[in-house]
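REQUEST ID: PR-0412
SUBMITTED BY: lab tech R.K.
PRIORITY: routine
TASK: structure prediction, single protein chain
INPUT:
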Amino acid sequence: MTAHPTAPPPVDSPPPDADKKESSGSSIAFTATLILLVGLALFGRKIFAGAFTDDGIRTWATMFVGVTVQAMPFLVLGVLLSAALTAFIPASFFAKALPKHPALAVPVASASGVVLPGCECASVPVSAALMNRGVTPAAALAFLLSAPAINPVVLASTAVAFPGQPKVVVARAITSLGVSMILGWLFLATGKGSSWLRMPKNRHADGTGKFEVFRSAMLHDFLHAGGFLVIGAAAAATLNVVVPRSWLDHVAGNLLLSVLVLGLLAVLLAICSEADAFVAASLTQFSLTARLAFMVVGPIVDVKLIALQTGTFGPKFAARFAPATFVVAILASLLVGWWLL
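STATUS: complete
OUTPUT:
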């Protein structure tokens, strides 16, 4: 007699009070960060008059405000589209659209990131929803990596940040697409990670209205992405003002070292993918290949994403997936940079 497979037991949703406390705490933290950094931009000249020269303060404030103002429209557009994707397009649509064979589903899922916008803040819960609806984890992870890196908003912002340099846009799209497919296939090749991938919980409770999902997703993603954007803009401005020019020139003069440094900087700054091109464009001391690494690494592996992946898929997953993603992204950036840039 043949035993019929049974569906896995439903995963309990986190208590509503815990979600509210976490959301409230995150909102307060990032709002406070935004107010603090904007205040520094406006009043930093008086506060730090004794520590920096007037020219240094003016340069810092100009670069900080310039990067933030340039990037904010793309950030808002990306958050709106991402929230709409989360709220109004059922995850079952993707399960039906993808090929049944996992190896073929990976490149299709990667390519779908070109037409399905979403910042990295939303890519983790969207990929989790795909897994919950039956999409093979390898394809869901490929989508997780490609959607925030090659969607139309990101490519448009990259074109605006690097005017007259379409090769930068092409290099970013090719590199990010390649990395997402390689990581998806690697996940399949390592036994699908069944022993260390924790199936995710639903982000929103069943029965939640679509407009409520849209509102909460938009608020959550904007507060998180906006906070990290101003942190990134402030860090880029500080890097250009505080760090000695001779040190930057030394690092920028070594291709491998500069790629590693900007890759690590992208991990630490955790800038939203809709805005990171403007920060990369401001790092004019570095080669285009190094700045390509900054734009490729940031949307797929940073401190924010590592934390999100740990909470969603488990620490064993994040401990393996994040380093592998970083190494593949660095190698791919070097290869495509040598080829195109």
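NOTES: The longest helix spans residues 54-88.
REVIEWED BY: pending
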